[in-house]
Specification:
This protein is of the alpha+beta class and 107 residues long. It has helices at 4-15, 32-44, 57-67, 85-94, 96-106, and strands spanning 18-22, 24-25, 28-29, 49-52, 74-77, 80-83. It has one domain: 3-Layer(aba) Sandwich (Glutaredoxin), CATH 3.40.30.10. The strands form two sheets. Strands 4-1-5-6 form a four-stranded mixed sheet. A two-stranded antiparallel ribbon has the order 2-3. A hairpin with a 2-residue loop joins β5 and β6. The N and C termini lie far apart (30 Å).
Length: 107
């Protein structure tokens, strides 16, 4: 079933190479896990967009259903769900995140 929230989520993921659904925004994260993701992306120096799930309950629930992932934040790179802060941290520490981001931005 398609709802306005799922349509908006799909649109945001397609329109942005790196999309973060988080608590707060990139200037003011509202939880430690969201802040961790923002810090990693800022260190990489890449452009990304955020959506504050606290501002829209439909988006907050919809993104969990979209990815089949129960927690926030959620990161999409090049239209693909990557994971939350734990996955982003692991990929960053292994040096794999930089490569994923470079490929996404080059496409």
């Amino acid at each position: 079933m398609t709802t306005p929230a799922t349509e908006k989520i799909d649109s945001l993921i397609k329109e942005n190479k790196i999309m973060v659904f988080m608590k707060g925004n990139k200037l003011m994260p509202q939880c430690g896990f969201s802040n961790q993701v923002v810090q990693i992306l800022n260190i990489l120096g890449v452009p990304y967009e955020t959506v504050d799930v606290l501002a829209d309950q439909d988006i907050r629930q919809g993104v969990k259903e979209h990815s089949n992932w129960p927690t926030i934040p959620q990161v999409y790179i090049n239209g693909e769900f990557v994971g939350g802060s734990d996955v982003m941290t692991e990929l960053y520490q292994k040096g794999e995140l930089q490569q994923m981001v470079e490929v996404a931005l080059a496409s």
